[in-house]
Amino acid sequence: MATKLFILSLATLPSAQAWGVLGHATVAYIAQNYVSPATATWAQGVLGDTSTSYLASIASWADTYRATTAGKFSAPFHFIDAEDSPPTSCNVDYARDCGSTGCSISAIANYTQRVGDGRLSAANTAEALKFLVHFLGDITQPLHDEAYEVGGNDISVTFQGYTDNLHADWDTYMPEVKAGTSSLANAQIWANALIAEIDSGTYKSQAASWIAGDTVDDVVTTATKWASDANAYVCTVVMPDGAAALQTADLYPTYYDSAIPTIEMQIAKGGYRLANWLDMIYTASVAKRSLPIRETLESRRDGYDFLPAPRPMSPAKLAREAAGYDCGHKH
Ligand SMILES: *[C@@H]1O[C@H](CO)[C@@H](O)[C@H](O)[C@H]1NC(C)=O
Ligand SMILES: [Zn+2]
After folding, report:
1. CA–CA separation, 13 vs 173, rounded Å?
2. Of the residues 80, 302, 306, which should be mutated to test ligand 1's pocket, given the most ligand atoms within 8 Å of the CB?
């Protein structure tokens, strides 16, 4: 019975998209630890939540929203389909890869602009913050920065005897083996462990480099750097010997052992960057509101001028569209 229940619960997992609920909540708890008190107060006000999980509670909202009719437009914002050639060549090119319906990078630019704008409704401001908390998590998941086989959604693999796709293993299965099922309590425990690694452990010497050069004055460049950083792991860790090599045996434990250090580091990075990002938005925009509002181009408030110039649809973009953004291919 226990085994049956376990399998049943696994069967429902693929509906958790992106880093799963666990990964996103962990990113959010890490960010909560590092934001300044002023940023925390501002974010709690925007979200109308002064609880100890104000960011963690909304970290997966964007995955629920994308599945609704009203939120369908946001489905492409969860990833960027880098049209590179893993495992021999990994790279992200914003103009080549973002696509005319937008991607994670243009979305981060748009919602960074919007959350700090000060003239949007409370609901639109909260929406922008909820999107940012989610997308700064998604962008550190290597397969959210990869077009190959629809971000690994079309690579069928077996993990602990259960056959699903490689993307789902990275989003959810492997994180849950490490940290348990997707409760906020488990996310907080995992976050605390990663915070300790940042403050005084494995990541202590690198954490500064995770945010070096990040600037809200050039979001596209900054977010492209984040995407490139994660995308590089597609060649070195996700499929160093190509996709077929992952289909010859169960991915647990050998592949899991090779991947989990990168998964943990990427979750830690996402949280550490998110805190710094929210602090920078607060300092650059929110804290200046007592001064006259900085004039922003009306068009920029919709974010469309962040998008790259339109290009003809590539085979990868056509494949993504054919797969549907939200049915079967959870990305
Ligand atoms: C910016 O955000 C608004 C509100 O969600 C959305 O309507 C618009 O399409 C977004 N623009 C881009 C370029 O993503
Ligand atoms: Zn997502």
Report:
1. 8
2. 302
Catalytic residues: 19, 24, 63, 66, 78, 134, 138, 144, 167, 171
pLDDT, tens only, 96-139? 999 999 999 999 999 999 999 999 999 999 999 999 999 999 99
* Mean pLDDT of the chain, nearest integer: 91
Dihedral sign computed on CA atoms, order 321, 243, 182, 211: negative
Nearest-angstrom CA–CA distance, 276 and 153? 31
pLDDT at residue 295 greater than cutoff 60: no
Residue 91, token pair as written in the block: 């790279």
Euclidean distance between the first and the last CA atom of the chain, given in angstroms as a whole number: 31
pLDDT by residue (tens digit) across 58-70?
999 999 999 999 9
Q: Report yes or no on 326 lying in a domain.
A: no
Residue 314 in domain: no
The CATH code of the domain that includes 189 is: 1.10.575.10
List, for residues 26-35, the tens digit of each pLDDT value: 999 999 999 9
E strands, the chain, in order: 156-159, 162-165
Residue type, 232: A
Residue 117 per-residue DSSP state: T
Q: Measured from the CB, is residue 102 less than 6 Å from ligand 1?
A: yes
pLDDT value at 11 more than 50: no
- Positive or negative, the CA dihedral 310, 311, 312, 317 is negative
Look up the domain containing 79 and give its range: 23-295
